[in-house]
Amino acid sequence: MKTDPRHLLFALALAATVAASACGPKAVRGGEGTANPNLDQAAMSTTLDKVDIDDLVKKNTDNLFISPFWARDVRGAGEAPIVAIWPIENHTSEHLDDQMLNLLSQLETTLVNSGLVSVVSRERQAAMAEEVGVQQGGAFDPNTAAKIGRQIGAKYYFTGKLTASDERMKGERRVQYSLFVQVLEVETSLIKFQFQSERTKAIVR
Amino acid sequence: MASRPLFTERVAPYAAMRKAALVVATLVSACATYSDRSMEARHSVEQGDLDGGVAGFNKLLKVDSADELPNDWKGDTALTVLERGMALHALGRYAPSARDFGAAEKELEVLDISGDVAGSIGKYIYSDSATKYKSPPTEKLALNAFNLLNYLARRDLAGARIEAKRFSVMRKYLNDYDPDHAHGVFGSYLAGFVYEKLGEYDAALRYYDEALAERDLQTLRAPLARLAPRTSYRTERLESYLAGAAPADQEEPPPEILVIVNIGRVPYKVPERMPIGAAVGVAHAHMTGDPSLLKYGAFKVVVYPGLVAAPTVFDEATVSVDGKQIPLELTTDLAAEVRREYDALKPKIIGAALTRMIARAAAAEGARAAGNQAGKGNGVVGLLAALAVEGTMVALDKPDTRSWTLLPGRVLIARVAVPPGAHRVEVALRGPGGAQQDTAVEVELDAKNYAVVNITTLR
Asked: Concatenated DSSP letters for A32-96?
């Protein structure tokens, strides 16, 4: 039987199309319990990702939970003290708006789940801050914090800064992040706890 | 039908050359350079149609609107995103412009750090555009400076501070590795302004001092006098500026209006093809009457990017606040910096172009020998083979015309302290041939506030 060359061409074109579509990008699911459990582990850039934020928050809260402040003033308190979380300032060289929200949520979740403190909702706190003219992401001001703290009945404030040392040389860029967390007593502005955790990201050849 | 064997008829060398030239001309037109591809969008911008320019860049990026970033980043994508970002900046669409600059910067950073052995070899063998795009120092520093302005114009000091830091990282890197090109007065000036408004006066003076190291800036005299009592940071240069300054009479920094006028555009690259072989051949034929050299010289072409000035519509600007003219000062001449960078690189560019021409000539001679052998001594076969090989290689040699073509040519700054309240800022632009554009902006300032008025013409 004689094959029509046009049919052959059509079949080849179809095969090429199918092959090309098979090589295209596709969405995958990753994380625990999926076919790609290590998908989150790969660094994609020098900005902070979920793995970095988990690590930074964990190091700080682990140290908080074994600190004398926590043993004496939180565990030893008759009832769970009310705490508020002031926005953590981004002093790095990266735009991290979403990551900062994630970081605050992580910190809030960890504190709430400790069961030992009562955490003021950030929405209520933000509304209070707005009332006294403080912008989200604004600098920590002990006077304003005390004012808002009294209004919402908080005994302690969590605050902090995310800083970074950013360097570049031929063939490499390295960003060393530090998350600095402080707990201040609202009434006295005394520092009750502070700790700094670190994480480094880089692009190397 | 009887088929006719190839290469059996005698073909006059000139006719063969004409045919080969036609093939090459077709190939050349198919291999558009970056400046060719971006011409339509650039032309819209030159006509003052910024929206048309954005649409043109969207087309090149294969996206439906400026709300989208491309999915697939390859070749010149980062550069095209930079161009669109600048058109958006000129439109006052600062948020999408900041997104474009940020995304392009990340991509350019990876390209910068990654190796490009194949491209580096290719640049000397077959095409000037074979390398990955690595932005020159002027573009690197301008990127962070203009992105800083994107945040400042929206009064987002936290975002502007991040860009100021990124600018510093890049400036330090260039200072370490390419100190002759670590300029960026405009970026240092704006970074100083950001830190001043954040109340971080040490950092503000450090940045202002950095700007003063490169250019005498009269618009900084009053701010320096205001800042000096609030910080102990000093350098010899700052001391000399402060020596003649009247002491500041206000405890709190006054509200301030900062006006930035970006006029013109930097020169950009266009493809140049210098037919040196033909010139030598014609001269030889003219002097000796022997045209034989012409068949060797037809495609001895040096292919390189030349630099041309961007069309200028506006070259003068004046600024008035509440009807009173205030001094507008040239802060950065990006056009001159781009020209300086090109002049410094030109010997390398021409050197690579000559190397490619020699590589093409060697390949052509190989083809000529093979053609002569296949044609059993028929020189026409060898000539055609040589012309085809060399002509194709010339056509594939795309001059590297990649550059950030929409970068403003000159950055001018005016600033004035004003009492709290409403103020009217007027910016008048004039150009050769009577071109004029007047813009009036109303700003409302409270006691601790500042306003940024940014006019970017891109023409």
From this structure: TTSS-TTGGGS--SSS--HHHHHHHHHHHHHHHHTSHHIIIIIITSSSPPEEEEPPPEEESSS--
Which residues of chain A have a CB within 8 Å of the CB of B166? Answer: 93, 166
Q: What are phi and psi of B352, to 5 degrees?
A: -65, -40
User: The whole model's pTM is what?
Assistant: 0.81
- Residue range B389-406, pLDDT digits in tens: 777 776 667 788 899 999
- Rounded to the nearest angstrom, the minimum Cα separation between B42 and chain A is 30
DSSP-derived pairing of the beta strands B408-417 and B256-265: antiparallel
CB pairs under 8 A between A and B: 43
Nearest to B294 by CA among B24, B23, B21: B21
Q: Are A15 and A7 in contact (CB under 8 A)?
A: no
Query: In whole numbers, what is the pLDDT of chain A averaged over residues?
Result: 84
β-pairing, A156-169 vs B408-417, is: unpaired
| CA contacts within 13 A on the Cβ side of B295 | 20
Q: Which chain A residues have a beta carbon less than 8 Å from that of B161?
A: 91
Q: What is the 8-class DSSP label of residue A135?
A: P
Max avg pLDDT among A12-26, A34-48, B209-223, B369-383? B209-223
Among B111, B113, B156, B197, the residue to mutate for chain A (most A Cβ within 10 A): B113
Contact call for B166 and A93, based on CB within 8 A? yes
pLDDT on residue B7:
38
Q: Does A24 touch chain B (CB under 8 A)?
A: no
Which pLDDT value is given to residue B74? Answer: 81
Q: Taking Cα atoms as reference points, which of B361, B365, B356 lies closest to residue B385? A: B365
Is residue B87 a contact partner of residue B58, using CB atoms and an 8 Å limit?
A: no
CA of A96 vs chain B CAs: smallest distance (Å): 10
Of B106, B158, B169, the CB nearest to A137: B158
| H/E stretch holding A168 | strand A156-169
Long-range contacts of A113-118 (CB under 8 A, 24+ apart): A114/A65, A115/A80, A116/A70, A116/A74, A116/A75, A116/A80, A117/A74, A117/A80, A117/A81, A117/A82, A117/A83, A117/A156, A118/A80, A118/A81, A118/A82, A118/A83
* Alpha helix stretches (DSSP H) within B333-432: 334-374, 379-396
* CA-wise closest residue to A161 among A103, A60, A90, A97: A90
Which amino acid is present at B1? Answer: M
Q: Which two tokens stand for residue A78?
A: 């008759």
Residue B265 Cα, gap to closest chain A Cα (Å): 28
> A92, B165: Cβ pair inside 8 Å?
yes
Chain-centroid distance of CA A137 in Å reads 14
Mapping DSSP to helix (H, G, I), strand (E, B) and coil, where does residue B197 land? helix
From chain A, the residues in CB contact with B71 under 8 A are 25
Closest Cβ opposite residue A94 in set B115, B162, B177: B162
Beta carbons of A169 and B176 less than 8 Å apart: yes
More confident: A152 or B286: A152
- Residues B114, A90: C-beta atoms closer than 8 Å: no
What residues have CB less than 8 Å from B352, skipping those under 6 apart? B123, B124, B128
